[in-house]
Amino acid sequence: MMPDTTGVELNDFPPIKEDWYGLIFSDFEEKKDKNNNTYAKLEFTIEGTKRKAWVNLSYDIGFLWKVKQFKAAVGASDTDRNLADFKNVRLKGYVKDELYQGKHYPRVEEFKPYGSNLTEDNPESRPEEDSDDQLPF
Fold first, then answer.
1. Helix (H/G/I), strand (E/B), else coil: 71
2. Which phi and psi (to 5°) does residue 66 adopt?
3. Checking DSSP bridges between strand 90-100 and strand 103-113, what pairing results, if any?
4. What's the pLDDT at 129?
5. Per-residue burial over 37-70, b = 16 or more CB atoms within 10 Å of its CB, e = otherwise
6. What is the pairing mode between strands 52-58 and 38-46?
7. 95 burial class (0-12, 13-18, 19+ CB within 10 angstroms)?
8. Closest among 90, 137, 112 to 20, alpha carbons compared
9. pLDDT the model gives residue 2
10. Integer Cα distance of 35 and 48 in angstroms
């Protein structure tokens, strides 16, 4: 016999198209996982929509590359430690749809500074490298 589903809401957002999006870093919560390791659950607003996207940033040594990537995207230095200082900062994020418990969640996979228009499939968008003639010294 199937269970009663009264009060259960259907997910009204369709899956998000996998792509680079403008994001605004809107909120975070630092938590502990089941092994007592610290991570930060980051929340973003996708520009031009009411949709949110999320990512968990592990503080474990093996995942610090992703923390560094996030810091670079929001203009933080390696020594900046307070996430609250970067709330409402704009950045770009590569967002993928993740199906979890029957709902679609936009998950941020990569970060870049907001002014960056670099994409893996569009190498022409990469800025030209300065030649020695353009250097001021």
1. helix
2. -75, -35
3. antiparallel
4. 40
5. eebbebbbbbeeeeeebbbebeeeeeeeebbeeb
6. antiparallel
7. buried
8. 112
9. 75
10. 38
**Amino acid identity of 116?**
S
3-state secondary structure of 12: coil
- pLDDT in single tens digits along all 137 residues of the chain: 778 888 876 656 788 899 999 999 999 999 999 999 999 999 999 999 889 999 999 999 989 999 999 999 999 999 999 999 999 999 999 999 998 888 889 999 999 999 876 444 443 333 344 444 444 43
Q: Catalogue the long-range contacts made by 14-19 (C-beta closer than 8 Å, 24 or more residues apart).
A: 14/104, 15/97, 15/99, 15/104, 16/46, 16/51, 16/53, 16/95, 16/96, 16/97, 16/104, 16/106, 18/94, 18/95, 18/96, 18/97, 19/94, 19/95
Residue 66, token pair as written in the block = 């992703």
